[in-house]
């Protein structure tokens, strides 16, 4: 009896490490991205240059950072269309604050505060008024972007006061050759991987996404958790916004336009299930990587960037179809 | 030994009388079948006992003490657990995580408190073994049979040493073999001295597992009798109203 009990407790549905890997959508997406990188290295002599790799990793870090927040929202059964607007709001807030003479850190706090407020409002309206996240965050997309326009008076900001150089170094600089945004993304990814697996909050995100009714009945504070989920999503957008300002060296109000779609694409390609309950941090990062590799390869191969949407769109559908086929086979 | 007693419990929703003057007792280790047509007030009664609704009038006593539940959590703390009709399980999570949902075990990890999966898997495995279910703690609920899912939902109620377990239609949507499994689970609860209130439409299930049968019709309790003193035909008559009412429990 005790032996079989031990066996039952230790039993795992997954087999060997390899078969476990092969069952993950993120594994195949990673293979696709890796193949892309290898073929680009062989076909072009521009891909594997230090300069290009630096650009690729930094670009993908911005999408990756927000995709981690988006994956959290999607795993909880929601969606956040307002991340692009949170990016520009955060960027404008830090830009306006710094150009008025405020230092970097207080300005950054203001920018993060603004983005957290966006998420807070999203979360409150979604959780307590029960309005669908799609509608709420669609409204917020318009609202936050409009606020950014009002705040900046639609002027470009390119002088950032006393801490000008610090801002540019943070967003555009590197440590030991690794771009700072990439470091931020890796740290965030490690922390959130841990949080997803080992904390109650992480488990509740997936419980709410899996069966919100069950989460409520078992006494989980579903509404409060939802508010924090949307705040986290906006927070990642706020962080990306600050880093993007530092990288670009200026703030324009079209920053982050349509970025929500790229971010959702990255999350979905990485295995986040729009029906809720599934998604991984690693998936978000790898999804973002694949999108950037596609984008970069088109540029390097001299194909019109107009084709970018066609490739990314195909990948979204292929990734989800792949997952669907795998799920169907798993049922037999 | 009396475990749960309802006295004159009623519930009104505006002008609608969902439940009217229901008095009922449940002894320790007793299985009471609650039957009635759709809209007879079964779910309302369960929701009152479980703390989802407060009764418009009447009182509830648990082992002689008055209960006034404002939230399901209050009822849970007093030892009343519910197995919901849809089982309230998260398909995307493991059996153990579902058993402990909302009550996760934690351990220290440096400065932070993290979920103690090892203890949760062990404890869940012990509960499944007690229920003699083949459910494995690490399996995803999505891949489980109806009977295994029931075992997960029932194991959840056992976490806190419950005194009363309310079960809402546990055998409504599962196969014949699994029904037998679930009825076995109910007998195990009874053997542990837990009182079970079983809501069901399925006459054979109620007759095979219940000590007593109570019938609700249009919010009123029309029968409360020992199982061996009645028959499916009589109960059907009571549910439909062909038989007016019967009280057949020794006081």
UniProtKB/TrEMBL annotation, chain A:
Recorded GO CC terms: plasma membrane
Keyword S-adenosyl-L-methionine in annotation: no
Subcellular location: Cell membrane
Membrane topology: Multi-pass membrane protein
Keywords on record: Cell inner membrane, Cell membrane, Membrane, Transmembrane, Transmembrane helix, Transport
Keyword Transcription: no
GO molecular function annotations of the record: transmembrane transporter activity
Signal sequence, start to end: none
Protein origin, superkingdom: Bacteria
Transmembrane segments: 26-48, 60-79, 85-102, 109-128, 166-195, 229-249, 261-291, 298-322
Designated name of the protein: ABC transporter permease
TrEMBL record, chain B:
InterPro entries for the chain: AAA+_ATPase, ABC_carbohydrate_import_ATPase, ABC_transporter-like_ATP-bd, ABC_transporter-like_CS, P-loop_NTPase
Top-level lineage group: Bacteria
Location of the ABC transporter domain: 4-243
Keywords (A to Z) from UniProt: ATP-binding, Nucleotide-binding
GO molecular function, one term: ATP binding
SMART domains according to UniProt: AAA (SM00382)
Record-linked Pfam families: ABC_tran
Keyword Nucleotide-binding: yes
Statement: the UniProt record of this protein carries the keyword Cell division: no
Family: Belongs to the ABC transporter superfamily.
Entry protein name: Sugar ABC transporter ATP-binding protein
Species for this entry: Stappia albiluteola
High-level lineage: Bacteria, Pseudomonadati, Pseudomonadota, Alphaproteobacteria, Hyphomicrobiales
